[in-house]
């Protein structure tokens, strides 16, 4: 852990009580919420057991609520059996079969409505197709798809037969895809010929081919959904079209009842060192908190049209596209494209046309759309909106206020939701019918979630506005189960301090006089670019893998829209370019990182120096590099530097 916490410089006094119109429609009253907090406080496990019995349909009811015998490998509802797909789809058939489950809109504006009955049929048919390809309970299936309804159908179909899916974001490169296939030893890849984004075709099948060429021996079959219809290669014996795989498959598929602890999915996320971690989630506990957060934070009601703009390649797209909203019988919007195509009115146009009532997006998108000006959203009818949400990184008060006034017309509460891939669902967030919100604060922990700030000794910080480590002191149902195939890494990453007593989130935060949480940022070397965690280490390894690069260090610096920009300091094999400028090489390295990891990780800036600043023990002085990248004055002791003349080089001044 670093020796210093970040000093908080943000002072924000504005308060926003829930609007009367919102309160009128809510199902969560102050009394109800108070009762929830109270019962969680009295007996946390009994509280979650009660929620699990109310919110989930069990094939075999659980008797044990929580098994802590192998802590920190906590196991919720271990002797209960259920099926996630059953809880999302079959439960709707009796009352809601004709209700729209999915409103899909393609990049080009093509729209499909899929009812719960139809979704059930399509999931069952595809689940049978998976079985016919030899997939059964516990097998790993990689999903590398555009943001289309079939991505959710593929996830639900895996869940239906107990196969463990691992969705890889469609923007990731062949080499990232390959790493994930190999780490999961997946038998099957589900992909598409391509997808549409901003008027362009995203190559998915050819990228899959590249990934499979260089290893991935576990893969037996590739199922390809035809989305774009452009020419792609199909390898005989290995590749099969989705529609052919579904041929003659039955439209009924009995769910495979799995233990609540059975892995529902693995999702990779960046850590500070080494390769991405395969975050393993359970079925029962995970689904429970996806549901409870839909109720408490999104106040979900039968008439809502719920739109979470996240891709299914991220945890947000798992909990608030593929599982939570369906398990609560909501109508969801799925959108293939980008917020700025064909213009910056796309989101608002879609909110108007599909009568969206709950809208959930990332600060990076809000900032980009804010830049485009208020005239654009003002030209649409946004009156169906009743609740707005944000996730992924701290939202600056200015963007929060814009969201609240320009989009929400001051009547929609804004829920700033703090959580992580590892937490599975919201942990700290407002309950919009009750909580008085403050721009930039995710407010309070939800019922049953014991979030706290501690110092390095693990002692709770009770003084207001003192920065500390954000920890969760009691296990919760949707918690990460382990790092796939690496129990030790799970322990080292999340339970390294305080005698393994507290879950360490890896964020620092402060609490104000009213106990509201204000997230300050990550404490490890992880960047948050457009709401996505990127390990600096991964970008550094990608750079060093280029033949011209000897050494590199990557840091973040604040960026108006993306939150953080990637700045890379590079030492070349051979001479430093004249004056530190070589535009062709810079472009080549950016493209290279794009190919190795994905476009999102491309350095915004590359600075060349003769060597990197290091401590006596040989550690790169990252804090110094961060200061330099931000253009701040250097206050650290630089006397240990072997060669002080690199300072102007790092500053881009020589
Ligand atoms: C990290 C988790 C959770 C889905 C999206 C990202 C940051 C997330 C907030 C928020 C301030 C936030 C944290 C966290 N973060 N939400 N509302 N306010 N920071 O998932 O990739 O697992 O990243 O994102 O730093 O630890 P993820």
Describe, in short, the structure shown.
Helices cover 31% and strands 21% of the residues. With 654 residues, the protein is an alpha/beta fold.
What is the count of helical runs? 20
What is the overall shape?
Answer: globular
Helix percentage: 25-40%
The CATH topology of the largest domain is given as Rossmann fold
At the first level of CATH, what is the class of the largest domain? Alpha Beta
Largest sheet: 7 strands, mixed
Question: What are the distinct ligands in this entry?
Answer: 5'-O-[(S)-butoxy(hydroxy)phosphoryl]adenosine
CATH architecture of the largest domain: 3-Layer(aba) Sandwich
Head-to-tail CA distance between termini = 34 Å
Provide the structure class.
alpha/beta
Strand order of the largest sheet: 5-4-17-16-18-19-20
The CATH homology group name of the largest domain: ANL, N-terminal domain
Based on CA atoms alone, the radius of gyration comes out at: 24 Å
**Runs with pLDDT <50, length 5+?**
1-9
EC number: 6.2.1.1
Protein name: acetate--CoA ligase
GO molecular function: acetate-CoA ligase activity; AMP binding; ATP binding
Keywords: ATP-binding, Ligase, Nucleotide-binding
Description of the molecule:
Belongs to the ATP-dependent AMP-binding enzyme family. Pfam families: ACAS_N (PF16177), AMP-binding (PF00501), AMP-binding_C (PF13193). This is acetate--CoA ligase. It is built from 20 helices and 30 strands. Helix 18 (583-596) links the parallel strand 29 and strand 30. Helix 4 (84-96) runs parallel beside helix 11, helix 5 (116-132) packs across helix 6 and helix 13 packs across helix 15. The longest helix is centred in the first third of the chain and has 17 residues, at 116-132. The radius of gyration is 24 Å and the shape is globular. The relative contact order is 0.11. The chain binds 5'-O-[(S)-butoxy(hydroxy)phosphoryl]adenosine.
């Amino acid at each position: 852990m670093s020796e210093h916490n970040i000093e908080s410089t943000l002072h924000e006094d504005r308060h926003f009580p829930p609007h009367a119109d919102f309160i009128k429609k809510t199902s969560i009253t102050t009394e109800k919420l108070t009762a929830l907090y109270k019962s969680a406080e009295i007996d946390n496990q009994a509280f979650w057991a009660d929620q699990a019995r109310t919110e989930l349909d069990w094939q075999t009811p659980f008797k044990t609520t929580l098994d802590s015998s192998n802590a920190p490998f906590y196991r919720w509802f271990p002797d209960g059996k259920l099926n996630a797909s059953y809880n999302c789809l079959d439960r709707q058939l009796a009352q809601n079969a004709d209700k729209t489950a999915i409103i899909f809109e393609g990049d080009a504006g093509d729209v499909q409505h899929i009812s719960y009955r139809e979704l059930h049929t399509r999931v069952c048919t595809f689940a049978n197709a998976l079985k016919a390809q030899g997939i059964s309970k516990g097998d790993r299936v990689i999903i590398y798809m555009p943001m289309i309804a079939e991505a959710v159908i593929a996830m639900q179909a895996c869940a239906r037969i107990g196969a463990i899916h691992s969705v890889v974001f469609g923007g990731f490169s062949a080499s990232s895809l390959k790493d994930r296939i190999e780490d999961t030893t997946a038998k099957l890849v589900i992909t598409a010929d391509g997808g549409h984004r901003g008027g362009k075709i995203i190559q998915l099948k050819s990228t899959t081919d590249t990934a499979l060429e260089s290893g991935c021996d576990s893969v037996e079959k590739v199922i390809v959904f035809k989305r774009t219809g452009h020419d792609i290669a199909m390898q005989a014996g290995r590749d099969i079209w989705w529609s052919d795989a579904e041929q003659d498959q039955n439209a009924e598929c009995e769910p495979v009842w799995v233990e609540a602890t059975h892995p529902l999915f693995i999702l990779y996320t960046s850590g500070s060192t080494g390769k991405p971690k395969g975050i393993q989630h359970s079925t029962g506990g995970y689904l429970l908190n996806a549901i409870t957060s839909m109720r408490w934070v999104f106040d979900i009601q039968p008439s809502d049209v719920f739109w979470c703009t996240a891709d299914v390649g991220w945890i947000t797209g798992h909990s608030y596209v593929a599982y939570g909203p369906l398990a609560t019988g909501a109508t969801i919007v799925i959108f293939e494209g980008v917020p700025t195509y064909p213009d910056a009115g796309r989101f608002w146009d879609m909110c108007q046309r599909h009568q969206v009532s709950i809208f959930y997006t990332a600060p990076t998108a809000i900032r980009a759309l804010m830049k485009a000006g208020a005239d654009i959203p003002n030209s649409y009818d946004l009156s169906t909106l009743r609740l707005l949400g944000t996730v992924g990184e701290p939202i600056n008060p200015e963007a929060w206020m814009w969201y609240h006034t320009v989009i929400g017309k001051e009547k929609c509460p804004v829920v700033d939701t703090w959580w992580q891939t590892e937490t599975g669902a919201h942990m700290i967030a407002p309950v919009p019918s009750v909580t008085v919100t403050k721009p930039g604060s995710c407010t309070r922990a939800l019922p049953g979630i014991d979030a706290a700030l501690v110092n390095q000794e693990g002692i709770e910080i009770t003084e207001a506005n003192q920065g500390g480590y954000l920890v969760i002191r009691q296990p919760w149902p949707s918690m990460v189960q382990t790092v796939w195939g690496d129990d030790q890494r799970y322990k080292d990453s999340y339970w390294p301090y305080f005698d393994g007593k507290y879950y360490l989130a890896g964020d620092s935060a402060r609490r104000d006089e009213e106990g509201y949480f204000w997230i300050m940022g990550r404490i490890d070397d992880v960047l948050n670019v457009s709401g996505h965690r990127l390990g600096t280490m991964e970008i550094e390894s990608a750079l060093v893998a280029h033949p011209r690069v000897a050494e590199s260090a990557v840091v973040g610096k604040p960026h108006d829209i993306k939150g953080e920009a990637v700045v890379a300091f590079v030492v070349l094999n051979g001479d430093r370019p004249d004056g530190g400028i070589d535009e062709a090489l810079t472009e080549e390295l950016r493209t290279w990182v794009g190919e190795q990891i994905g476009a999102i990780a491309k350095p915004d800036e590359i600075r060349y120096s003769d060597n990197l600043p290091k401590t006596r023990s040989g550690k790169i002085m990252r804090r110094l590099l961060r200061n330099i990248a931000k253009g701040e004055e250097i206050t650290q002791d630089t006397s240990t530097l072997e060669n002080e003349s690199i300072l102007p080089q790092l500053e881009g001044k020589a």
